[in-house]
Amino acid sequence: MTICVVCDVLGRENNGTTIAAMNLIRSLRSKGHTVRVVCPDQERMGEPNFYVVPTLKLGPINSYIKKNGVVIAKPDRKVLEAALDGVDHVHLMVPFMVSRAVLKIARERGLSVTAGFHCQAENFTSHIFMKNNRLANLLTYKNFYRHVYRYVDGVHYPSEFIRGVFERCGGKTNAYVISNGVNKQFRPIEVKHPKELEGRRVILFTGRFSKEKSHRVLIDAAKKSRHADELQLVFAGDGPLKTKLEKRARGLKHPPIFRFFSREDLLRIINSADLYVHPAEIEIEAISCLEAISCGLVPVISNSERSATRFFALDERNLFPCNDSKALAERIDYWLEHPEEKEACSKAYLGYTKQFDFDHCMDRMEQMILETHEKKAR
Fold first, then answer.
1. Which of 139, 296, 301, 312 is most buried as measured by Cβ atoms within 10 A of its Cβ?
2. Model pTM score
3. CB under 8 Å to 250, separation ≥6 — which residues?
4. First to last CA, the chain
């Protein structure tokens, strides 16, 4: 098949949506499909099967959006028409302007279309300082449904949690709940702390440096821990709040490491860490947490009602109340002070994560595309 994947957001693989898109594209190509990609990534210009659209110019607003690691793709009818010529199926990654324009053309041509659900309402409303406004979030979901999801032949949800949230707010869809999957690369390996970290208790969190990821809660918890002087926080990622987080961390004996890691380096850091903490308040799935527990790293996860990640907890000791840094400090201290129980929990997680096998998840994604295409063709 010739499949067009539409990515209103694409660039460096430092956020969940881009990683999910590139994983799907690489997987489909490995299975013999021709995959065309529509995106605003100017660095892709001239690459085979990449159709690059311009970015929207909004004056001063653009610099604010750029700080958040996002560009707004602008539809170009000529580019989109060319991208869809001879295509069998279209898959939309997020319900934004370019995807909406492609959906309109695809429907005119009678093409089968699926759409991923990779954007919580709060991922959008946080940019306009309305993350906690229930009405704004409800209206965002209704807008997504009205303009995109009610028209497509199938919707990919990375978790049952986000399916439930969206269908309650928007409307019913032809749903396929499929994890984005964990690459086989993430597995237990023998590795020691880097020399510069010897004697420290390493706590890892992987996530974009943005408000909804709540890095501040972990920083505050580290200061309240009985083991504060031993703790080395490692924040793997990138994002607009790096400077603010560095300032908040002042006073810790060992300044946190803020850095974007390659997959190989991240694998080594995961396997040398003592705990993984996921304080995010808003999360559709959190592959970063799955990558950590797939290596046997014990997690402590925010019990936020707006996060799917809480369902990865095997028991209450893997959870802490959302935004409660004191409770998080107590959980950190518990696991550091009970190494035998931590070892048992680690082994339990190695069995738990088999259900998120990357190849199995990608097979199911391909099956969703084939199934919806066949139904449309009847």
1. 301
2. 0.88
3. none
4. 16
CA atoms of 267 and 263, how far apart (whole Å): 6
- State pLDDT tens for residues 313-336: 999 999 999 999 999 999 999 999
Q: Are 237 and 260 in contact (CB under 8 A)?
A: yes
Q: What is the mean pLDDT of each run of 10 residues along the chain (378 residues)?
A: 94 78 95 97 92 81 57 90 97 96 97 96 83 92 97 96 95 95 92 84 94 96 97 94 96 95 93 97 92 96 96 96 98 98 95 90 97 92
Instruction: For strands 201-206 and 319-320, give the pairing.
Output: unpaired
**Do the Cβ atoms of 97 and 73 come closer than 8 Å?**
yes
Between CA 139 and CA 148, with CA 144 as vertex, the angle to 5 degrees is 150
Residues 6+ apart with CB under 8 A from 219: 233, 245, 248, 249, 252, 256
**What beta strand segments (E) does 216-279 contain?**
231-236, 257-259, 275-278
117 contact partners, CB below 8 Å, separation of at least 6: 149, 155, 156, 157, 158, 162, 163, 166, 284
For the record, the structure tokens of 63 come out as 């610099």
Q: Dihedral (C-alpha) 170, 301, 272, 202: value to the nearest 10 degrees? A: 130
In three-state form (DSSP H/G/I as H, E/B as E, the rest C), the secondary structure along 146-171 is: HHHHCCCCEEEECCHHHHHHHHHHCC
Tell me the helices (H) and strands (E) count for the chain, helix number first.
Answer: 14, 13
CA distance 166 to 95: 13
d(CA 71, CA 63): 9
Give the pLDDT confidence score for residue 192 in this predicted structure: 80
